[in-house]
Amino acid sequence: MLQLPNQQIGDAWFFVHDDTCHAYFLTCPMHVKRHTLWDVGHATSRDLKSWDYLGLCFERAPEPAWDATLATGAVVEWDGRFVMAYTGHRTARVGVALSDDLHHWERLSDAPVTAPEAPHYALVSHGFRTHTHWRDPGLFTHDGFLYHAVCASRSDPPPPTGRHVGTADIDRSGALADPVPIAAGPQGFSASPPAPSASV
User: Fold this and answer.
1) CA torsion sign, 47 to 48 to 49 to 50?
2) Does pTM surpass 0.85?
3) Cβ-Cβ contacts under 8 Å for 180 (sequence gap 6 or more)
4) What strands lie across the sheet with 163-168, from one edge to the other?
């Protein structure tokens, strides 16, 4: 079990590389109000019981940035590098960071790569949590492409919940209703996505 004295631990996501499991998790000092100032911590294990804490690996941006506090992410290996998608919790956006060693992460851009966009997604949730839902991204690869999934709220949710998962191009600052393949080029991530569809 991983325990950090005087530190809160929030959501975690995992990535296995070679014979090592990498745990990434939200963390902040115990005296800080929960969900307000998350950074990302990093620990590793080879047996899932004993963990080595390596410290913070990805820190929130300075105020008033869209990612001045962080939330849940995901990691995959793709095209020879490691990719982390993460939530910017200030304004419900998703960003991407890159790494060569799974510990030192560099933002792909100071701007988010996806954001909720009407009319495909609700900008105010219909549930008891009325903030914007564009969070907890997932990453997966298929046939040489990288896809980004995200937890969101439909603009016309069926009762009792409006949450669903959509996929989007992680190189554009707007969400698409349909899956979009991402290709790597000299300038980083690029794509030629289809026009957005009104259906979700």
Assistant:
1) positive
2) no
3) 147, 167, 168, 169, 191, 193, 194
4) 134-142, 145-153, 163-168
